[in-house]
Amino acid sequence: MHVFWYLPTQGDERYLGSTIGQRQPTHKYLTQIAQAVDNLGYEGMLLGTGLKQDPWIVATSLITATEKLKFLVAHRPSILPPALAARMAATFDHISQGRLLLNIVTGGGPLKNEGVFLDHDERYAHTDEYLTVWRALLRGEEVNFHGKHVQIENAQLRFDPYTKPYPPLYFGGSSPAALEVAAKHVDVYLTWGEPPALAAEKINEVRRLAALHGRTVRFGIRLHVIVRETEREAWEAAERLIRYVNDDKIAASQAQFARSESEGQRRMQQLHGGRRDKLEISPNLWAGVGLVRGGAGTALVGDAESVYQRMKEYTDIGFDTFVLSGYPSLEESYHFAEGVFPLIRRDQIKLSAADSVFAYRAPEAADLRVLRRYDASESAEARLSENGSLSSALRP
């Protein structure tokens, strides 16, 4: 499992639908979260889009404040030319020594407030052309491209990125146009947290489309988490999170979401229908966040073992990356890491131990050769004791 956390550059909160306990996204607070996430052993951190703070600049400011953390930086193709974005990505990749990942965000609306007036399918057509150029530039090619939305001549990136052939591309979207872009271009397809059966349908479709392009794609899922020592404590925490959410706030939020062009947002709304009495839509999967929050609207709720078992159900259908978050971000990053990471480590060590065997070949004359395979479990435990980092302990 690749486990990421989310950095709340838009601000943090303790209760949905209330200003009580809100925290401003000061640089000190964001740095505090990033350093905690880095030290706890998360592999990376998602920096989303938003109108408050630019994810590129925030991520750059955190490179020297962290040691191993990868930055999954949200990037809108419609607001930056591909050649400039390629230089920015290669530069960040060099400065961070390979800690850049890019989350391509086409957008659930026209983005008129950012000067973009393309309709839904045109935005994805633009993203298709954009990534065709961006990938070619990062591969070191000289690019001449004349499409409907992107035109460029004699373009070339003058230095190679640190990561070859380029920093990995992540991408989400549920419409047919989005799935086609994912199949053609990206490394990791991200989806919001639907029940496993629905998520599996989406995975299978992306796999089918990717195969038509001669490609394979990995899969990630975006979820909130509420982990406590007992199931009861976890569900009580979930109810506290929405204690100030009333019917008027739900109705207003759902009406706003209904105006979105996002197919993913429509699917999120269908999970709960705006009703408070049917929020556990699958075992330990709670849709309460989606009552008043757009985007990822579901949370895994329970004790550590229950949440981990639900995560394993997602890995069984093909997900290997989990992009998680919680309210407030700092505290919930600790709740999850302290509860679930030991379980991930436990199973990883068991798998490594099962794979650690002695293999012998028959002696040839007087020459007896003993071949011993690398003992991954012993090495993992040794690395863990040396630096206390889960990610380094699980690294092959």
Q: How far apart are the first and last residues' alpha carbons, in Å?
A: 13 Å
Output the CATH class name of the domain at 2-75 and 187-360: Alpha Beta
Order of strands in the sheet with the most strands?
A: 1-2-3-4-7-8-9-13
What is the 3D form? globular
What is the CATH superfamily label of the domain at 2-75 and 187-360? Luciferase-like domain
Report the uncertain regions. Answer: 357-396
What class would the helix/strand composition place it in?
A: alpha/beta
Fill in the CATH topology of the domain at 2-75 and 187-360. Answer: TIM Barrel
Spell out the helices and strands N to C: EHEHEHEHEEEHEHEHHHEEEHEHEEHH
Biggest sheet descriptor: 8 strands, parallel, barrel
* Arithmetic mean of pLDDT: 89
Query: Total number of helical segments?
Result: 13
Q: How would you characterize the overall build of this protein?
A:
By secondary structure, the chain is of the alpha/beta class. It has helices at 27-40, 55-61, 82-96, 120-138, 176-185, 196-212, 231-241, 247-258, 263-272, 304-316, 329-354, 376-387, 390-394; strands spanning 2-7, 44-47, 70-75, 100-104, 143-146, 151-155, 169-172, 188-192, 218-228, 280-282, 285-286, 299-303, 321-325, 358-360, 370-372. It has a domain at 2-75 and 187-360: Luciferase-like domain (TIM Barrel). It is built from 13 helices and 15 strands. α6 links the parallel β8 and β9. The protein is globular. Residues 357-396 have low confidence and may be disordered. InterPro entries: Alkanesulphonate_mOase_FMN-dep, Luciferase-like_dom, Luciferase-like_sf, SsuD_RutA_monooxygenase. One of its GO terms (molecular function) is alkanesulfonate monooxygenase activity. Residues 1-320 form the Luciferase-like domain. Keywords: Flavoprotein, FMN, Monooxygenase, Oxidoreductase.
